[in-house]
């Protein structure tokens, strides 16, 4: 009997969560200049095709990405860019680590090249973690990850005044399912251009 009640409650919560998330996506304001340039159809709805959007269309006025739009990206796009502003690339970390591994150094070198070629660009390095560990621990780990990437970029010649860090810990998983494949994608720093 207990198992049946838990299953019913779990299914009910899942249905409720999906309906809340779906209704939230429909009410998200979209910054618009020209509907066709923004990927918005004549009915005012956001197109699921994101290729027509400019790089900065995923950002709101505070420089944060619009998660309802980001949710429309396919998994391959998310694996390539995370929540980073194109053409910047995310860097990934091993479990419970904040040091930059040699295989992620090239991604940071590409980000540094872009920033050096575009001196007006300011970037927020956003540290993220997988769901394991306490919220407090993961916020601290996310900050160490963001600081590690920031220091790496500074060593490559990027002016430190153009970089700031922010930690989200486990609070914003890009891949919300449990398991090593999702956790590995969620252990990352994103590089978001500030507006």
From TrEMBL:
Residues 80-195 form the OmpA-like domain. Gene3D superfamilies: OmpA-like domain. One of its GO terms (cellular component) is cell outer membrane. Residues 1-22 form the signal peptide. It is found in: Cell outer membrane. It is a lipid-anchor. This is Peptidoglycan-associated lipoprotein. Belongs to the Pal lipoprotein family. It comes from the Bacteria. The lineage of its organism: Bacteria, Pseudomonadati, Thermodesulfobacteriota, Desulfobulbia, Desulfobulbales.
């Amino acid at each position: 009997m207990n198992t049946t009640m838990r299953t019913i409650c779990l299914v009910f919560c899942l249905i409720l969560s999906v309906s809340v998330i779906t209704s939230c996506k429909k009410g998200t304001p979209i910054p618009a200049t020209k509907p066709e340039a923004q990927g918005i159809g004549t009915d005012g709805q956001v197109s699921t095709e994101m290729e027509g959007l400019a790089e900065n269309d995923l950002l709101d006025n505070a420089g944060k990405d619009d998660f309802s739009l980001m949710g429309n990206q396919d998994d391959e796009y998310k694996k390539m860019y995370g929540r980073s502003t194109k053409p910047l690339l995310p860097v990934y970390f091993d479990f419970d680590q904040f040091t930059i591994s040699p295989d992620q150094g090239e991604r940071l070198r590409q980000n540094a090249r872009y920033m050096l070629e575009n001196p007006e660009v300011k970037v927020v390095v956003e540290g993220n973690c997988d769901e394991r560990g306490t919220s407090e621990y993961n916020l601290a780990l996310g900050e160490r990850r963001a600081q590690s990437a920031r220091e790496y970029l500074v060593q490559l010649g990027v002016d430190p005044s153009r970089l700031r860090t922010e930690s989200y810990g486990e609070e914003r998983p890009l891949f919300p399912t449990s398991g090593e494949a999702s956790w590995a994608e969620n252990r990352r720093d994103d590089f978001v251009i500030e507006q």
